[in-house]
Amino acid sequence: MLFDLGASIFSLFFLLAGAACESPKVRVVLTNDDGWAEANIRAQYTTLTEGGYEVVLSAPAQDQSGTGSLDLPPTPLLEPCEYNTCVIGSPATGYNASEPQLNYVNSFPVTSVKFGIQTLAPKFFSGSPPDIVVSGPNVGANTGISVLGSGTVGAACEAAKEDIPAIAFSGTAKTRHSYTELVAGDSSFIYSSLALSLIDILIATPKPFLPPNTILNVNFPNVTAQCASEGNFEFVLSRAFPTLIPGFDLNICNTNTLPTESSVVGNSDGCFASISVLDARTKLDAGKSAQTFVYSKLGPLLKCLS
Ligand SMILES: *[C@@H]1O[C@H](CO)[C@@H](O)[C@H](O)[C@H]1NC(C)=O
Ligand SMILES: *[C@@H]1O[C@H](CO)[C@@H](O)[C@H](O)[C@H]1NC(C)=O
């Protein structure tokens, strides 16, 4: 009898604890520069949604690779959307009628992310801003000098300037394809799962997730026979540009000069993904204090190059 009572008090406790722990979903605006129908961004949409996030996709109607921080008002379509996903004459912004979270913007990546943050997020997230902006994964790496021209990085920087923490993801595998061609084991799914694992760790920490005016620039190496599944990959803190100034970076892995992104993703001793901390206003490497902040959040995920 006593035991029974104890057991039911116990289950009541867990019921209440469970209810109290049920937190609202983390809200994501998802964008890119390769276009709204590219396989990588749709894999990311699916992976985040299945991972428990509330996601609104707002991305260019066409491939806008290399358009940096260009921003112009969207215009009606003078040609079909990429992969024939909308017809000529479609409105300047539009969405998938059976899945209205999927939105195109017929302009640049920065214009698309602004539309996502300023117009779509209030509508889909009942007036709240997104908790985080995810840009990519880009088709092809964005390491070093290429961050300056990348629309994927440009969109993330715009979000950070609007006070939304943002991460740009890029994958070395250059398999440009439509979301309708996604297959199991696709590099798009490997990249989006890796992105999810990083985001999961970041959002489990208290806000703010990132220092103000700062983005993370994440690059994944190619998907090959050696780097074929999520478990093969490891993350390394990096910098975009080489530095000659000793002591600019935080001191980890027995050095105060972080490895460059290209040396991390190009390292053939493993499957290493680079994470750089960039200043959203200059797109150059952020300093030691921002790196230290990021290290305090992502430390458990980070490895040293041996
Ligand atoms: C729109 O959503 C439906 C249902 O998920 C899907 O079958 C279709 O391929 C999508 N089209 C585009 C262009 O997103
Ligand atoms: C990635 O790896 C595949 C398979 O090994 C190879 O065919 C492709 O050329 C590589 N791509 C890049 C950008 O290195």
Ligand list? 2-acetamido-2-deoxy-beta-D-glucopyranose
Task: Report the CATH superfamily.
Answer: Survival protein SurE-like phosphatase/nucleotidase
CATH architecture assignment name: 3-Layer(aba) Sandwich
Alpha-beta classification? alpha/beta
Series of secondary-structure elements, N-terminal to C-terminal? HEHEEEHEHEHEEHEH
CATH topology label: Stationary-phase Survival Protein Sure Homolog, Chain: A
Number of spatially distinct domains: 1
Question: Could you give the order of strands across the largest sheet?
Answer: 3-4-2-1-5-6-7-9-8
> How many β strands by DSSP?
9
What summary fits the major beta sheet? 9 strands, mixed
Uncertain stretches: 1-20
- Output mean pLDDT: 93
C-alpha-based Rg, rounded = 20 Å
Distance between the termini: 61 Å
Helix content: 25-40%
Query: What is the chains' assembly state?
Result: single chain
Summarize the helices and strands and which ones pair or pack:
Blueprint: H1 2-21, E1 27-31, H2 39-50, E2 54-60, E3 93-96, E4 99-105, H3 109-124, E5 132-139, H4 151-161, E6 166-171, H5 187-203, E7 214-220, E8 233-238, H6 261-265, E9 271-279, H7 288-298
Parallel strand pairs: 1-2, 1-5, 2-4, 5-6, 6-7, 8-9
Antiparallel strand pairs: 3-4, 7-9
Helix pairs in contact: 2-5, 3-4
The chain binds 2-acetamido-2-deoxy-beta-D-glucopyranose (2 copies).
Residues 37, 85, 96, 98-99, 102 line the site of one 2-acetamido-2-deoxy-beta-D-glucopyranose (NAG).
GO molecular function: metal ion binding; nucleotidase activity
Organism: Sistotremastrum niveocremeum HHB9708
Protein name: Sure-like protein
